[in-house]
# Entry
Amino acid sequence: MHPTLVKKEFPTIDLGDYILREKNDDDVVDFFNYYSDPEVNKFILCDIPCDLEEARREVSYWRNVFYHGDGIYFAIARKDTNQLIGSIGLTSQNNYHKRIELSYDLAKEYWRKGITSKAIQAIAKYGFKELGMNRIEAFTATGNLPSKNLLIKNGFVLEGLLKQHRYHKGCYVDVYIFGLVRQNFLSNT
# Structure
């Protein structure tokens, strides 16, 4: 049976001092606090929760991506306290074309510590080996140079510019599209 058709228990992935785990209701306040930081959400091309109830719905939505078979979205948490410090996931799963989209975010105080790089490597491995995907795509706003550099550092190839691809805060935003294919990832790991 194809890996995406078999429902498994939500996995936990060990990253050393951090883990990737399922989101839960205890994460709502931490999620809201870091996600509502203007420096964090400057390039997040979706609506930002305005209050804890909206944050609770957002956490629930992303948690259920796994249970609805559209991918998987993890909490990035400190191993010592289990505190949520970010999120990373694979969504918009296309089983026919075997492709899926990567997205991530991280609380500002944890930037530039290598956490997201470790998480990207772990989630790419999960996407290729567990979900059976052939391609992982990522989109970044053209002004988001740290994310662009992070993706390139982790083996993603900048494939092009998509003009006015996303609508955000009342205007259309150009984005870069990046791709990572199974063959290239597995040959480098």
Notes: The radius of gyration is 16 Å. The longest helix spans residues 52-67. The chain has one domain: 3-187. Residues 1-5 have pLDDT under 50 and may be disordered.
